[in-house]
Every structure is written in C-alpha cells, then in structure tokens.
What does this fold into?
Amino acid sequence: MAGILFIISAPSGSGKSTLVSELRKQVSGVDFAVSWTTRAPRGSEENGREYNFTTRADFERMVEAGLFLEHAEVFGNFYGTARRSLDEARADGHDLLLDIDVQGGAQVRAKMPEAVSIFVMPPNPRVLRTRLRNRSRAEGVVNEEEVYRRLAAASREIENYREYGYILVNDILDRAVAQLEAIVLAERFYRNGEVIAYRSRRVLEVAAACMQNNSQERLKPVLEAFGILNAPDQRQFNFGEEPAEDESDQGSDDEESDDR
Ligand code: ADP
Ligand code: 5GP
It folds into this structure.
C-alpha cells in the first residue's frame, strides 16, 4: 500500500514543529523527513534529529548531484528535502511528512499533485510575536530584529494559503493537534480505506471543517489581523490592544475546545 505524502507549511513561530511532534506521539506510521539545512543548530536541536546540519558548500554539492526533492532559501539559509527520505518511506509503505516552507511546498506539489497539503496559521500577529519572543527567550536571547523579520515574512507566507488543501489555526494547542490527527486519519480512510478506530464520524467532520474550501469564515479574522484582506499598499499588522506586562499565549478561551 502506497504511503501518503503530507506537506505542512507555516510561518515561522506558528507552532508547526510543536504540532508535528505531538502528532508523531499519537499517530504511528508517519515518517518525518529530516531536512538538510545550512543554518546553525538552535537551542537543544541535535544533528540528525531536527535537521541534518551542513555547510553551504556541501549543500551546493548536494544540489548539483540532484539529491534534493526540493530546496529553497529561507531567511538567508538553505533548506532541502533529500529524495532519499521519500524513497525510504515508499519502500516501507509509510506516510511521509514534510515540514517545508511555501516555496518548497510549491515545488513538491508541482511534482506530486497527489500530496496532501496543510497550512498552519497563528491566530493573529500578536500571538505570533509572543511565540517568536518566547522561543527566542527559551534559547537564551530575544533578538527583536529577527522576531520582526519573521513577523514581516509571516503575512507574505500566509498569502499562499489558498495553495493548501487544509488550513489549521494554531490557537489552542490541543485542538490544533486533534485537527491535524483528524486530517491524517481521514486521508488514510479516504485513500486507503483504513479504518478509524474511534469516533470515526467526528474525526471525518473535524477534518472536513479544516478543508480550505470550508474555512472562509473561520479564516477571515486571521487574514484581517495580518492585513491580507487589505489592498497591498494599505497592509499593516493589527496587533490589537497593547499587551499587558505579563503577556502570555494561552490561546483564546472563548471558543469550544472539544474537537475530537
Ligand atoms: P514553528 O515550528 O512553527 O517555527 P514552534 O513549534 O517552534 O514553531 O513554536 C513556537 C513557540 O510557540 C514555541 O515556544 C512553542 O512552545 C509555542 N507554541 C506552539 N504552539 C502553541 C500554542 N498553540 N499555544 C501556545 N504556545 C504555542
Ligand atoms: P526554522 O529555521 O525555523 O527551523 O525553519 C525556517 C523555515 O524553513 C520553516 O518555514 C520551515 O518549514 C522551512 N524548512 C525546513 N526544512 C525545509 C526544507 O527541507 N525545505 C524547505 N523548502 N523549507 C524547509
């Protein structure tokens, strides 16, 4: 049985790595493609676990040798997915998850239109700024310039959301994890006829609600907050009220959280 290729993209700091690591704890049979990158390891990252860290010269050699399924420059560093990751997952009959940026997503979709694509959005720029700052703080130092560089890139990346089949808004973590899990189980059910072990109807409903085609109302406030519904020359972030000193990111508490 052929595995399913999942592409997941998101602006940096949206919580994509967190979601993927939670998914991998809960769903078996999904391989994660460890990308190659020329950027330096961050925080507790280990070579071969989060990324294969390499030099620019070696990366260029790999490009020339045609070893990458896709590759792109992101924030001044190079990132690429080795073809080998796909070959190995296929040989094992496993699903494969690619955590790649929107440029890489477009390259893979062009080669493999059957891939399932998922775009993760932060709920608004203020939450994204908090997450980027918290992550920097956890790594030892808050680099405000870097935080703003990633914030500015976020709205440009979010503009590409229409290219993705499913959209998650990572507000409340548990809910977003349940939605991601539902998408994987629903795709396995539709494509491979794999039985869903529990609450199958609910799982299919949750996945269907995440389809881009069914998400316009849900996405409107997010797109507005990132200025994406404005004309390009009027675009600006809406950070909402200036946060209090103890700014935190607990997700909104005014929405139902039982999405299972
Ligand atoms: P990405 O992989 O998209 O760059 P990370 O997974 O590193 O983002 O998450 C950025 C920061 O936000 C991390 O500190 C993470 O713990 C936090 N985070 C992720 N998702 C949530 C969430 N739903 N609620 C609160 N914090 C979150
Ligand atoms: P970070 O440096 O924060 O881990 O990742 C920065 C961006 O690079 C993220 O959007 C991430 O999805 C993307 N990225 C990670 N690996 C790859 C890859 O192999 N190919 C592409 N195109 N992007 C990648």
